[in-house]
Give the backbone structure.
Amino acid sequence: MSLTLLPPATRPVAPVPRDRFIDVLRVFGMVLVVVQHWTMPVLAYADGRITTGNALAAIPLVTWVSQVMPLVFFAGGAANAISFRKSPDGWVGRRLARLAWPVVPLALVWVPVPYLLVALGVPEQPVQVGARLAGQLLWFLAVYLLAVVATPYLIRARAGVVLPVLGGGAVAADAVRFAGFEGAGYLNVVFVWLAVHQIGFRYAEGRLAWLSGRRAWALAGAGFGLVAAVVAAGPYPVSMIGMPGAVSNMAPPSAVLLALFAGQLGLAMALRPALDRLVARPRPAALLAALAPRMMTIYLWHMPALLAVAGVSVVGLGRRTPEFGSAAWLALTPLWLACLAAVLAALVRLFGRYEEPRGTCDGLVPVRVALVGAALTVLTVTGFQPGPLPVLAAAALALALVPGPVRRPAAARPRR
């Protein structure tokens, strides 16, 4: 799977400023992630236990469009490249603060919530399921932190060397994984996500200016065609999200996501002129301006919103989710999404201000990165299930955000 998106004869053009197209990809990607997560649960509750299923198992081809994490990492790479070149001094510390602070209220709420729910008489099993899911999506922040830390080094690296190494590494890791060494697949957390993040650098530098019109449509066709070919050949599953009891293309990420990204990137670049015209209009521009600064909060709290509504309707009232695709499902899904959106809007209003960091992460940045990375990794694995690990992770997160010593400017020497 080739990642060389820059034709050999094409020379880089001047760097481009950050444009609204990147914000469109970020907002569209996160909104699609939220809608996907809200529509896929199949839930039933009986005898104090909740059972979960995935509605998208019936229509796995939809995930070729709805699995947009590759585009999200691409947009993140472009944004990181632009901001780093604008102000490189202390960049990792500033980015770390913006990444970690929104997690603080999530941890403050969810560490005690499972204990409180059990004390109020909620059965333990659904509480554990919900507490685990509330932290599971922090995998994205853990991996994105890795991309942030790598940015100052990779942004100076030669794309003609780095991209083939990352792409080849992804294919090699899959070969070892499917030969029976499952753990090797987790190397693709680095290879796959850093590869698409690195291509975001190329966009920020203006090196994807050639990718438009017929070339963009050709890349889209080639990317999705390659996905179809490797899925048909196996052992990759059709679904681009994890399904119970099946090989996953996401956990760990597989090299097929690179082909999927190529298809999605070609499609996005082909539609870029139309998207630019759309967000130039007053109402879409206002909506984009309102949503873009709150994407982290929306991502972090959309699962708690789902857990709250599902907890009341399924566990509290004993309702089952209707069969996917049935008349009841079609009739109730708009109401279901409206309720979830209302709860999420309230949560974003309450916690959105934490996307504006309460302080900086100056000084001991490697230690702070290690603490935040460890906290996010632990919470990804354990969630907020009752036990010491979530408490320790929350403490590590708080410790990482303790303000460093204030550096006073040196006093000016008196003139003689």
